[in-house]
Amino acid sequence: MYFSSKFSSHLHLVLSKDLLTFGKWSDTWGVGFNAKKTKVLTISGNRGEHLPLIFNNMQLQEIDSHKHLGLLFHNNLSWHPHILSLHQRTMRHVNHLRSISNSVPRFALFSIYKSFILPIFDYGSVVYDTCSQSDPLLLDSVQITAAKIITGCIRTTANDAVLKDISFVKLGTRREKQILLCYYKIMFGMASPTLHPLISK
Distance between CA 72 and CA 85 in Å, rounded? Predict the structure, then answer.
């Protein structure tokens, strides 16, 4: 459930009414909802006070971020928390890759990276590519670490040389291709119609 307004009082009024309607619907149809598990995420540049929302006679908890469909949304629309989460998650996999690197051939390490680590970077990249210029450097460091593990080179080897040796496409380039592919699908009706308004005529 979401609503957008420039005025916090209007926002509170509409959402409170919707929550009341939602509560009546759940009572009518015997579908129970746990208010303790229901959270409120306010996305705004204005961090002023706003009235709490009540659902089933319980004040809903206000949170700073929320993971939805694998993407971590923050209350100031910064993608930095999501990038940090991606970095931690992928580095765990890279460390597993390191632990088996001495007993697994190079082609197998490469296949493991492409199958289990690279898709993590690709998922949602069309959305989080609007992050700050410094955030992608964290993700690039993961790919470079993985490339050096796969090739077995020393840590001081030039990053570009390692990526070229293993034919890795830079993550920034992959994101650009994903964005162009998404744009193509929207333009030619191969994506959900709800995305069409995103393309300016």
Answer: 8
